[in-house]
Amino acid sequence: MLTLDGKIAVVTGALGGMGRAVCERFGAEGATVVGMDWTDEGSELFAKEMAQAGSKFEFRKVDVSSAVEVDEAAEVVAAQYGSIDVLYNNAGLMQLKPILETSNDEWDRILDVNLKSVFLMTRAFAPLMADRSGSIINLSSTGALRAWDSLSVYGAAKAGVIQFSKVAAVEFAPNIRVNVVCPGMIDTPMARGFAAGLPNPETAWETMSQQTVLQRFGQSSEVADLALWLASDQSSFVTGEEIAIDGGSILR
Ligand SMILES: NC(=O)c1ccc[n+]([C@@H]2O[C@H](COP(=O)([O-])OP(=O)(O)OC[C@H]3O[C@@H](n4cnc5c(N)ncnc54)[C@H](O)[C@@H]3O)[C@@H](O)[C@H]2O)c1
After folding, report:
1. Of 99, 136, 140, 160, which shows the fewest CB atoms inside 10 Å?
2. Which domains does the chain have, with CATH numbers?
3. Phi and psi at residue 208, in whole multiples of 5°?
4. 15 lines ligand 1 (CB under 6 A)
5. Rounded-to-integer distance, Cα 104 and Cα 247, Å
């Protein structure tokens, strides 16, 4: 039997690097996946690829920082499926900027997309898990676990995700488990964009990969392995945890 057979999974940021890999893994393991992203560019092709792989997938265009859009999406999902089993809050936006150069609007945007979205999605979708044993997985970052230059706002938002998740794990027990994934350097469009913003991007990419103990960037498929374990009943006694997947980058 496949690990997520018969389960319904909602994945946000579904068209990004890790979101896509997680949709593919959940689908391959038997879940019906509802993927959400604020853009629908490339969504038709992705839906076609998922169908070709034999996975049950549908896409919905949702800005997860908008309470109105999130609540509407929850109503549609509730009407269609009745209940869900997995909520994977993956949508995120990174900003590399010193504190003194950060505007009010930038603070609001980074906090809204990375932290408020997790609250909005949890408030809207956790009630759809009430009768079942659900798993909520929220994406933080090693940017929340140590100080990285110019990542104050993003780091603060991602640190907020950890504390929010711990309280949610207590509030929703014993029906729903809530855990946090803290990726380090994973090779996705976000990480490539981060390197592109540094002086000498190619050298920066190499230097960043050497900062991990394992001396390389991680792959989205490796994050999907962890996501699958947390989503499945194989992690049934794990809740309120934050798990770094970073090749050991926070060790030094
Ligand atoms: N790549 C890394 O090295 C890294 C490291 C630490 C944490 N993370 C976190 O992991 C998660 C996935 O990152 P990724 O590297 O795959 O990023 P990505 O940029 O490849 O994908 C992010 C996705 O989120 C979507 N998104 C952004 N704002 C949205 C919104 N308001 N509503 C709906 N969708 C929205 C984007 O369109 C995109 O498809 C993010 O939360 C990110 O902060 C990434």
Report:
1. 99
2. 8-186+219-251 (3.40.50.720)
3. -65, -40
4. yes
5. 34
For the chain, report the end-to-end CA distance as a whole number of angstroms: 41
Contact criterion met (CB below 8 Å) for 126 and 136 = yes
**88 catalytic residue (yes or no):** no
Give the tens place of pLDDT for each residue, 127-153: 999 777 899 999 999 999 999 999 999
pLDDT digits (tens, 9 = 90+) for 25-66: 999 999 999 999 999 999 999 999 999 999 999 999 999 999
Q: Where are the alpha helices (DSSP H) in the chain?
A: 17-28, 43-52, 67-81, 104-111, 117-125, 152-172, 189-196, 201-210, 220-231
Give me ligand 1 centre to Cα 250, in Å: 20
The answer to whether 36 touches 12, Cβ cutoff 8 Å, is yes
Question: Ligand 1 centroid vs 171 CA: distance in angstroms?
Answer: 26
Q: Find where tokens 């909005």 sit.
A: 120
Half-sphere exposure of 103 (CA within 13 A, CB side): 3
Q: CB of 22 closer than 6 A to ligand 1? A: no
Whether residue 155 has its Cβ less than 6 Å from ligand 1: no
Whose C-alpha lies nearest to ligand 1, atom 44? Answer: 183
**How much is the CA Rg of the chain, to the nearest whole Å?**
17
The amino acid present at 227, given as its one-letter code, is A
Question: b vs e for 47-57, b when ≥16 Cβ sit within 10 Å of the residue's Cβ?
Answer: beebeeeebeb
In which region does residue 215 sit, left (phi positive, over 0), alpha (psi from -120 to 50) or beta (all else)? left
Compute the 3-state secondary structure of the chain and give helix, strand, coil in percent, each to the nearest 5. Answer: 50, 15, 35
